[in-house]
Design brief:
- The protein is α+β, with helices and mostly antiparallel strands.
- The protein has 2 domains: 48 residues; 191 residues, Alpha-Beta Plaits (2-Layer Sandwich).
- Helices cover 46% and strands 13% of the residues.
- It is globular and about 60 Å long.
- The model has no long low-confidence stretch (mean pLDDT 87).
């Protein structure tokens, strides 16, 4: 049921991308309500989690990966850096990378965790120092620190002027929170040329385990929702979801520096 929900959601997302009609979009999205009714019911949530067969139950890792490539389920696009700064990965790589690393991790029965990072009160930087100076003296240093911190642990993507994404394969929510809190601590020692101001981050995290029902787009939306929750509840903290279904849970603050 969980995997059928993800498959159906992907199908609907593809259809929604081809229309701007609000009524059509709402009709398409309502198709998920029947599955949601089951997956949110008490009897479903209380039941034992079935062990879903994996390719690696009968194949080696190399053979399983070859099969995923053959069937088009595993494809990592060519690396492309953000066009403006050339430090972090381009945002267009995030969803393809997430899909590929979910496949990598699922055959190993390991999770992937996504983080949505937002610079707190970023407009104050632009107001006080001007956007050209912030682009020259602040953002490149911040992005270099983020890239260095996540190097060999995952991937970081520039999503907007003050928004960034992190993809962390083989990390649970708990592991990601520790890793990201270390980056928050690292930022306390980062200074900028003739700018007496420090960067803090509000972060939302979502874990996509082997049976996570969410699509890549939905994972991104949930991470953004958790990030907004962190901002609305004091800033400079990490928020995420305590349950495994994600769709019914409210986010909660997981870490405060």
């Amino acid at each position: 049921m969980i995997h059928e929900r993800r498959r159906k959601a992907l199908e609907i997302e593809q259809k929604v991308s081809n229309t701007s009609n609000r009524e059509v979009i709402e009709a398409l999205e309502s198709e998920l309500s029947k599955i949601a009714k089951f997956t949110k019911s008490d009897w479903f949530l209380a039941g034992p989690i079935a062990s879903v067969p994996r390719l690696t139950d009968c194949l080696t890792i190399s053979a399983a990966e070859s099969e995923l490539v053959r069937t088009g389920q595993l494809e990592i696009p060519e690396r492309e850096y953000d066009e403006k700064f050339g430090i972090l990965m381009a945002s267009t790589l995030f969803l393809p990378d997430l899909a590929a690393h979910r496949a990598f991790c699922e055959i190993r029965r390991r999770p992937v965790t996504v983080a949505f990072l937002d610079i707190d009160l970023f407009k104050d930087f632009n107001t006080a120092f001007g956007e050209p100076r912030v682009d020259r003296d602040v953002l490149p240093i911040f992005m270099s620190e983020l890239e260095a911190h996540i190097y060999w642990h995952g991937y970081a993507y520039k999503f907007g002027g003050d928004e960034y994404l992190a993809l962390m394969p083989n990390q649970s929510t708990d592991q990601a929170v520790v890793f990201l809190s270390e980056f928050q601590e690292r930022l306390k020692g980062v200074s900028f040329f003739e700018i007496d101001k420090r960067i803090t981050l509000s972060i939302g995290v979502v874990e996509a385990g082997q049976d996570c029902p969410l699509t890549g787009h939905e994972i991104l939306e949930h991470a953004a929702f958790a990030k907004n929750f962190a901002k609305e509840n004091g800033r400079n903290r990490i928020a995420g979801f305590s349950g495994t279904g994600h769709t019914a849970d409210e986010p909660t603050v997981l870490f405060v520096p």
